[in-house]
UniProtKB/TrEMBL annotation:
Organism: Tigriopus californicus (Marine copepod)
Keyword annotations from UniProtKB, A to Z: ATP-binding, Helicase, Hydrolase, Nucleotide-binding
Protein name according to UniProt: Helicase ATP-binding domain-containing protein
Highest rank taxon of the organism: Eukaryota
Entry keyword annotation includes Hydrolase: yes
SMART domains linked to this entry: DEXDc
Residues of the Helicase ATP-binding domain: 27-198
GO cellular component term of the entry, any: cytosol
Length: 203
């Protein structure tokens, strides 16, 4: 997959010896810049797949947010942050959580330092964008994880607003979901560029 050497070392150190089926499909397509709709059940390896792709694509020398990951709850957001930090620590990748429960002042200070990746819940992320603490001009990737849970949870307005705000530059969009509803397909049709759909992948 032509991954950076430091990332590959961390992957092996974590005990991953070979990519699962979904990772074989998702990682190369994501790295090359394709918009993706990934429909796969829990435990299929899709979370690690997009995290590896994000870590491969970010430019470490640019201390601005380049990838924004949205999750339906703070527990999942924190789990994604920990995985990003574990796999990216060897080459200086910085990942910041933007979730309720973290003091705003503490989060603002970390956002000012310029994390490469921000992962959070839509309400808190939108607040940070509106307050201009989270800069969006260098964001090249937007990932909606467990997208089937994001829209029904009342985050639809925040997500559509974020798409509109990020629409000033071509942005890669990745939707990951256990199921793909008509609502998700409508979102894809409105904001994604010829997305490739990967469905029902199992190891």
């Amino acid at each position: 997959m032509n991954l950076r050497a430091e990332l590959l070392e961390r992957i092996h150190a974590r005990g991953y010896e070979r990519p699962w089926t979904i990772q074989q499909r998702v990682i190369p397509l994501c790295v090359q810049g394709s918009d993706l709709i990934v429909e796969a059940p829990s435990g299929s390896g899709k979370t690690v797949a997009f995290i590896i792709a994000v870590l491969q694509k970010i430019n470490i020398s640019t201390r601005e947010c380049q990838a924004l990951i949205l999750a339906p709850n703070r527990e999942l957001a924190q789990a994604i942050q920990l995985e990003c930090m574990s796999l990216g620590e060897s080459f200086g990748s910085q990942c910041q959580a933007s979730i309720g429960g973290i003091p705003v002042l503490q989060e603002v200070q970390k956002l000012k330092a310029g994390p490469h990746i921000v992962v959070g819940t839509p309400g808190r992320v939108k607040h940070m964008i509106l307050a201009k603490y989270l800069k969006t001009q260098n964001i090249k990737m937007l990932i909606l994880h467990q997208a089937d849970s994001l829209l029904p949870n009342g985050y639809k307005e925040e997500i559509y607003d974020m798409f509109e705000r990020l629409n000033h530059v071509p942005i890669q969009v990745i939707l990951l979901s256990a199921t793909v509803s008509n609502e998700l397909l409508n979102l894809a049709e409105k904001f994604m560029r010829h997305p490739i759909q990967i469905s029902h992948m199992h190891e």
